[in-house]
Amino acid sequence: MGTSLIGVRWTDRESKRYMDVLRSEWFATPGAVAEITHDVLGPKGGLYRARCQLLVRDTVADLDYEPFADFNLRQGMYLGLLRLHFEPGKREMPIRVEWRYSGRKTFSSRVTAELVRDPLPPLPPYKPKLGAVKTSTSQVLERPGQVRFRSTLMIAYRGRCCISGCPVSEALEGAHIDRFCGASSDHPQNGLLLRQDLHSLFDAGLLAVDPDTLIVHFAARTLTWAEYAALNGKARLAEPKDGGNSYSPSRDALRRRWRRFKRNEQTHDTAQPQHGADRGRPFSSVTTRRSVAAGPRRSC
User: Fold this and answer.
1) Domain boundaries, the chain
2) Is 76 helix (H, G, I), strand (E, B) or coil?
3) Which of 132, 149, 244, 293 could form a disulfide with 186 if both were Cys (CB 3.0 to 4.6 A apart)?
4) 176 CB-near residues (< 8 Å, 6+ apart)
5) pTM attached to this predicted model
6) Share of the chain above pLDDT 90, in %
7) How many CA atoms lie within 13 A of 18 on its CB side?
8) Cα distances (angstroms) measured from residue 128 to each of 100, 178, 263
């Protein structure tokens, strides 16, 4: 069985069209799994997490959320049991679902859902609309589309920074490769899922990706930090695990960033003071679009 995504979108009034995002590989082999964490996509693009125990039998898979009540309640999730029904010998895609609330013995007839075969459907290629960026180094735009942009990248990259591998969702942000110029900029091919500090470096032109090798490079002035030095010239950009080519970063967009990065590095080298008075200055002294402490960002 190949890996694909399965969406369960809850359509009753109380559930408000939230969608559980599951992976078909979880149901390939009968048996029990002690812990699985999956994404939950909100109706406005927000992303949440739910945690459950899994039991797979021939034509049924049960996802029990009660053993992780504290985690799920913090995420705003209902407690109960989700049951997926499959055709015999075919567990790639359920044929129907049921929900049983915590403490109940029977499944609810009031809870309804629709199955979504591909929560990350194929998309037309990214077409950049390059132009002036209507923002400044001191102002970050709040945009509803940014929430969905990040959520899409979180699902495609399975919640891991594509440079460092960091899995802490609260530390991850959706970074635009080409600067944001409108709704077309929110195409996943124009995005990278990055840890907050790496996103700041990327926006400041202090980090770039070689479009031919996908090797990550840092500006020379950041290499006094051991972690960045360890990644420099060695880390390779991880591509999305899900969604296919529609969600892989645009090589053309990476190339545009790469060219600016190389020009900036050459300019910085020629502008260095004769006696190195400013060499090795902290990254925090470089003007960037935001600080890591500023909280979740909502633009590129």
Assistant:
1) 5-116, 144-294
2) coil
3) 149
4) 185, 186, 190, 191, 299, 300
5) 0.83
6) 79
7) 19
8) 46, 8, 21
For residue 175, the model assigns a pLDDT of 97
Q: Any bridge partners for residue 25, and if so which?
A: none
Count of Cβ atoms closer than 10 Å to residue 139 Cβ: 10
Site of tokens 């559980």: 20
User: Is residue 280's pLDDT more than 90?
Assistant: no
Cα angle, residue 70 at apex, residues 67 and 76 outer, rounded to 5°: 110
How far is CA 275 from each of CA 87, 254, 287, rounded to the nearest angstrom? Answer: 74, 34, 23
Confidence of residue 267 (pLDDT cuts 50, 70, 90): confident
Least confident range of 40-54, 81-95, 113-127, 279-293: 279-293
- Count Cα neighbours of 138 within 13 Å in the Cβ-side half-sphere: 0
Tell me the pairing of strands 172-176 and 113-116.
unpaired
Q: Which amino acid is at 197?
A: D
DSSP output for 247-270 = GSPPHHHHHHHHHHHHHHHHHHHH
- Contact between residue 72 and residue 51 where contact means Cβ atoms under 8 Å apart: yes
Note the pLDDT tens digit of each residue in 60-80: 999 999 999 999 999 999 999
The number of beta carbons lying within 10 Å of the beta carbon of residue 113 is 22
Q: Structure tokens of 29?
A: 């082999």
Longest dimension (CA), the chain: 78
Query: Could you say which DSSP state residue 124 is in?
Result: P
